[in-house]
Every structure is written in C-alpha cells, then in structure tokens.
Amino acid sequence: MTSYFSAAFLLAFLPATVVCYQLAPRRARWAVLLAASYAFFWVLSGPLVVFVIASTVSIWAAGLALDALASRRAADLARQGVDRRRARRLWGRRMRLALVVGVGVNLGILGVLKYAGFVCELLAPLGCALPPAPSIGLPIGISFYTLQAVSYVADVYRGSSRADRNLARLALYLAFFPQIMEGPICRYDQTASALWAGEPVTAQGLFSGGARMLWGVTKRMVVANRLNLFVQTVFGDPGSYDGGMVALAAALYTLQLYCDFSGTMDVACGMGRVFGVSLPENFRQPFFSRTASEFWQRWHITLGAWFRDYVFYPVSLSGPVKRLTSSARRGLGNRVGPAAASGVALLCVWLGNGLWHGAGTQYLLFGLYYFVLIWAGGLLAPASEAVCARMGVARDGALWHAFQHVRTLLVVVAGELLFRSSSAVEGLGLLVRATLGFRASSLVDGTALSAGMDAADFVVTGAFVVALLVVGVLRERGACPLEAVWRRGAVARWAVCCALIVTTVVFGAYGAGYVPVDPMYASF
Amino acid sequence: MMKRMTRVLSGLLRVALSAAATVAVLAAVSYVLTPKNNQAAFGQRDERVHGIAGEPAGSIDVLLMGDSEIFTSVSPLQLWDERGITSYSLGTNGQKLIYTRSLLALALRKQSPRVVVLETNCLFRPFTVGEAILRVGKDVLPAVEYHDRWKSLTVEDFIAPVRATWTDEGKGFVAKRGTRAADASGYMAPSDEVAEMPLLNRLYLEEIERMCERAGARLVLLSTPSTKNWNMARHNGVERVASELGLDYIDLNVGEDRVGVDWAKDSYDAGDHLNASGARKVSTAVGALLAERYGTPDHRGDGSYSSWAEASSRARDK
C-alpha cells in the first residue's frame, strides 16, 4: 500500500475500514477512524509516526495552556482595581509565548526534517559549517498536517476556536487518513466535530463518495499516469529537446499535476463523504482563471487560504507594515501606496508558499515568480486600465476575457516549468528555451510522438481534457453532476459508476510499459 | 426492526446486482481485449510460457515452475531425449509466486502432470497484498492484463473465438550462450542461519501445494545451482518449510544431489544463471531424479508423442 491509488488500499484497506466503521457502535466509530489513520500512517512511514504523535500532543498541550491563560486573564481583568492595561500586556505576553512554543515545536520539526539539509547546502559555499542534517526521512504528509497543527494553535490563540481537551479528537483531526497524504488542509472547526460524530454510512453518501472517488481515480490513472511517459522522458533529459518539446512538456506537466492532485482530492473528499465528513474543496476550475491571483484562489485553495489567514493578514496588520502602508499611502497615493506596501506581506506569503512545496532553489524561484506577477499586477492595474481605455479595449468584452484566459494559462504553464525543474538555474534555462527558442516544427514533424506517448495516447488525453472541460463548465455554472445523477435513479447511478470503472480499466495507464506517477504532492 | 432489516437487505441486494452487472460488462470487455491466439503477434504476453496452452491435453507429465533459474537450467527437450519425459517450463523473469500460481492454474486446465517442480529462488521474492489483488484481477478479468490492446483492436477481436494453436519449440527453455566465470569462493559455505520466507510467499506456496494435490500432482521443491542466488541460509529455510509442509526438497547445490558445475565454464553471468553447458549437466541430473524418484514414464517410441521427437530433432539441427 503506497498511496490511495494502490489496489491494496482501494480494494482491501478502505472497504475493510468502511465495514468496521459501519458495524461499530456510533460512539466508537471515531476509534475505528483513528486506528485506521494510524495504521495507514504506519504502513507508509513506519516509526516516523512518532512525529505526528508529537505534533498532536504539542498542539493539545498548547491549546490547553492558551485556554488556561485566557481564563486567568479574564479572571484577572474582572478583578476590581487591577491595572487593566498592564494586565492585558502581561497576559498577552504569556499567551504569545504559548503560541510561539506551540507553533515553534511544529514548524521546528518540519524545519529540521525537511529543510535542514537544504539550509546546510545553501550556507556551505559561505563557509558556514552547520551540524549535518538528520537523514531519517519525512513522515508522510508532514507539510499538510503541520499547517493544520499551526492553524489550530493560532485559532485557539485568537479565540476563534475553543481548545479541545480531547486528545483523541485532536489526533483524528490531524491524522484522518483521507487527508493525511495530500490534504486538503482543514481547519479544526471544519472537520473535528464531524469526524467525532460517527455519522452512519448512507446509500447517498456511499454513491456520491464512491463516484467522486472513481472520478478521481480515472483522472489520475487515465491522464496523469499516461502523461508521465512524456513528462519523464523530456524532463529526464531536457538538454536533448528543443524549445517546442520543452514547452509541450511544460503544458502536459501542468495538466498532469492538475489531474494527479485534483484526482487525489476527489478521492480524499469522496472518502470523507462516505464517512459523513465534508472536507473543504481544494480546486475550483483553476484553468478558467483570468489572472494569476485568481488562479491561486482556485488552485490548492486550502493552502492559499492558510497563507492568507496565518501569514498575509498577520504580517499586513503588524505594526511595522501598518506604518509602512501609511507612509506609502502618503507618498504614492491611495491606490498604489497600499498595493506597494502589501509587497512585504505578499513576499512572505510567496516565499513561504514556494518553500512549502519543497527544499530547493526551484521552489524559491517559483514563489518569487508568483510574487512578482501578483504584486506587479496590483501595482500596474491603474496603468493597465489607462492603456486599455486609451486603446478603446472593452475590459468586460469576450475578447479581453479570452486574452486574459490565454495569458493566465501561459503564465501558469511557465510557472510549472520552473516548478518541475531540478534547480532554479535549470528552470530559468528551460524557460528561456521554451520561449525564445520555441520552434513549432518538433510538434508537427513526429518528434512529439517519439517521447513516450504515441498518437493514441494523445487522442485519449485530448478526449479526457474535453470531458474535464464539460464537467468544469457544468460546475462553473453551479451544477452538481453527482447530485443530478443521484436524482435520476439506480440505473443512472450504476451506469455512471460502471462507465468510470470500465474507462479506468481499459484506458488507464497502468501495468506493463507504464510507470505510475508518484503522488506528487505527498512528497511536499 | 423488521423494516430496517428489509431496507438493509434490499440495499445489499442492489449493491450485489450492481457489482454483478459491472463484472458482466468487464467480462464482455475482457473477451474483446483478450488475445485471440497465444502468440505475441496477437498480443499475448509471455508468449513462451503460454505455449503450454497449445500442447495437446494431458500430454505433459512434468511442469517446471519458477523464475529465470528454472528456464535457463532445465531443458525439457533434453529430459525427453535422455528419459522420454514430457515437460514444459513455465519460468519467467523475476517470477513471483502470485504469477506462479496463475500459470499453474492455466496449465492445469488442460494438463494432468504427475510432478510439479518449483524452483526455490522465487520463494524468497517478496510481493505485496496489492500485487496479489491485482494478479487475481488479471486472472479473473483479462481486460486488466490486456487493457492496452484497445490501441490495436481489429474486427477479429470482437467476433473470433480465443484459441491456442501455438507452442514453444523449446518447451519454455532458454539456452544461454556465453560464459562469465563465477567466484565460487564462499559458495554454500556451512551456516546454521535460516532464511525466512515472507509470510505471503508461504501462504501462496501452501495454495500451490493444495492445487497440485487436487490435480493429483506431486509438488517438488528444487534449488538449481547458482552462486549468486543460493546459500546455506536459504537452503536451511526451504528445508524447514518443506519438512513442515511434507514436501520433497532437492538441492542441486549441496549434499548428495549436488551437480558438479564447473563455475569457470558453466556460468552465463558470474554465478547468477547457468549457460547451455551448465544447463546440460543440470537437465541430466533432474531427468534422472524424476525418472528414478517419481517414476515419470518414458514416452519415447510412443507414436502419439512423435511431435516431441521432431521438436528435439529440430533443436539439435539448429
């Protein structure tokens, strides 16, 4: 069992868990989920399970400490004759200390396990000798559950969540197996009580969850695995391919990453639905975006929301940045000034976002790329509007929208090219080759068919892209295809599930001749 | 209570009917995707071992199972030449017991062997539960194994019956030409260590043993000579399992059954596999063991086996 897509998981582990869950008394169902989650973690990461236990205990203790401090502060402030300002400052300092310890333990574990080697590598040329980084590997999903742990402590600190005295509930919130590998990154208030409730498995939940899972499996097996043939071939030896092939590989990698990650999210959300837990959505037709900023509100939504709530707002509302905003407003005006000052918070967000994806210079470059695009986009918005007005371009017209869609697609593909590279230097080199050195000849002279995928593979991929587009348009219009199918009765439900199974079995890229794609986000 | 029970039963019935209907659709798709003959040209995987399906029913007395150790070490045509034994080698590269079981099931559809020889190197090759499930899926629904054939389907695939008209001239044996001497300095050095077989392998071995028993065949474990793959720890491990399951175990690396392999001349790739010269020695020894210990019949001179003599003659002419 290596992922949600392995036969052992889909055909043995998950069905066994669902049966045990349903047979268990309602008040004990959380125990089935917790046992299954830790068993899953153990199978994938073995003894590294101690780190998720450590994170759980640390946020539990931090939550209790924050709760106790908040109670004592309230009691102190309620006393007669107390210096309220001094008391607020004193208790505020103590609570901040608890917050820093709670967050620090979790970010510390993540930092040491994931980034120590990278930092040593960066500092080595500067002559800074650091102790060697530990090489004990990364627990599965550490980047995801660490963010959940941090959000819990921060929410308790802010008072938007109550501290949970129930260690088992927190453990389940952090390690729930459908979300542990690749998210979505849930907030405590979104899932903890539903996980604990032990809702029974219903026919509708089983259908909608199962069909959603099948859709995810199909995306992953038919498209992501198939594109792996081409993507691995070109990115494995990019020096042997011209700009056209590199550009095509970047486009196919973008599609592959989407089908892999959103397919995994479909499986995760589907599993959640079977257990009566509604996990937050991570994708909302990202390729329909018209700006880079909008793209990130539709792609990996829970990560973007996490950085917004726990990095962007705190940095923006910090004293120094508020002062900077005020002086920028005075110097540059009410529109450009705040946009310029927001660069500080944006830079923190995008450096964090880049580094969250991995310890490598290409991820730093990826983060900076989006920082520049989004920050400059904000700064240049007035100028852009003025130019459009002068040229008579209708900014609500279909033509302008189409231009925005194409531009955003190109921006996203270029970003994924940097992201897929093995270093920042290689990424920049490939970007230059794919743009300045772009030649369409290799796309039409048969070269494209010599990099692992034949014409039939491209046809299947194209057909699936059309299917994705249709589903995307329906969703964009507010339709819920699965609910519509559910209402149409048993035969329609069976037909949909059967069609997805047959499509995956026949057109799936698995078995001899295929190398299944590694769960990409699980390693971040 | 009764109402709830009825609802649950009705739900289960619906799920069972849906699953059955889906399997029926997949079975129909499997029919289309299954190669219509047992040759690579028709899309057959592992053509050499699937030649067993083209052998006349009930004509094979010995099945030789395992990984590359068996198909490079024992030549069925030599067993025929020297002992009149009819055998077929079902060895494939890196074979795991999950596939051994599938190939055995395939062979037992038409054949009633007296002896099934299982080369022991594959007993130690691990596999996962997922691989085992996938293998069962491939056996039940060939669409899982041959799904990629949608790229090359013809009208024939939709209407023609599935046939097996071809068999391998070498009866599954592959002679390795060439020599790379092996370093045999630590080969079969005495040791009390006992190599443990993975639990799943043990379960599959027991299943293979039951299949042989049901088919009236004797399962024999055989270790062919290899300095790279075999050692005393593995010998001890297999010996223990064989004694626990009541199976015969023959180790050609050590003891009274040891074959005098010249590691300077008889190795193909530095002790991993035997070359043709090494295979000749092992085939002679295996033929003698089969005839003397298991009484495999000598079919030479029997007109109904003339194709064996012809195949042997053609092989000698090559």
Describe this structure in words.
- The complex is a heterodimer of chains A (524) and B (318).
- Chain A has 20 helices and no strands.
- By secondary structure, chain A is mainly alpha-helical.
- In chain A, helix 13 crosses helix 14.
- Chain B has a five-stranded parallel β-sheet with strand order 2-1-3-4-5, with helices on both faces.
- Chain B is of the alpha/beta class and 318 residues long.
- Chain B has one domain: 3-Layer(aba) Sandwich (Rossmann fold), CATH 3.40.50.
- In chain B, helix 4 packs across helix 12.
- In chain B, strand 4, helix 10 and strand 5 form a beta-alpha-beta unit.
- Chains A and B meet through helix 1 and helix 20 of A and helix 1, helix 6 and helix 7 of B.
Keywords:
heterodimer; A: 524 residues; mainly alpha; 20 helices; globular; B: 318 residues; Rossmann fold; 5-stranded parallel sheet; 5 strands
| Broad CATH class of chain B | Alpha Beta
Distance from N terminus to C terminus of chain B (CA atoms, Å) equals 77 Å
User: Given the structure, what is the number of helices of chain A?
Assistant: 20
CATH superfamily of chain B: SGNH hydrolase
Outline the secondary-structure elements.
The complex is a heterodimer of chains A (524) and B (318).
Chain A: H1 7-23, H2 29-45, H3 49-78, H4 84-123, H5 142-158, H6 167-175, H7 177-180, H8 188-197, H9 203-236, H10 243-274, H11 292-298, H12 301-316, H13 319-357, H14 361-391, H15 398-420, H16 424-435, H17 441-444, H18 455-476, H19 481-487, H20 490-507
Helix pairs in contact in A: 1-2, 2-6, 3-4, 3-5, 3-6, 4-5, 6-8, 9-10, 9-18, 9-20, 10-15, 10-16, 12-13, 13-14, 14-15, 14-16, 15-16
Chain B: H1 2-33, H2 47-50, E1 62-65, H3 68-73, H4 76-83, E2 87-89, H5 97-110, E3 115-119, H6 129-140, H7 142-145, H8 155-159, H9 199-214, E4 218-223, H10 232-245, E5 248-251, H11 276-294, H12 306-317
Parallel strand pairs in B: 1-2, 1-3, 3-4, 4-5
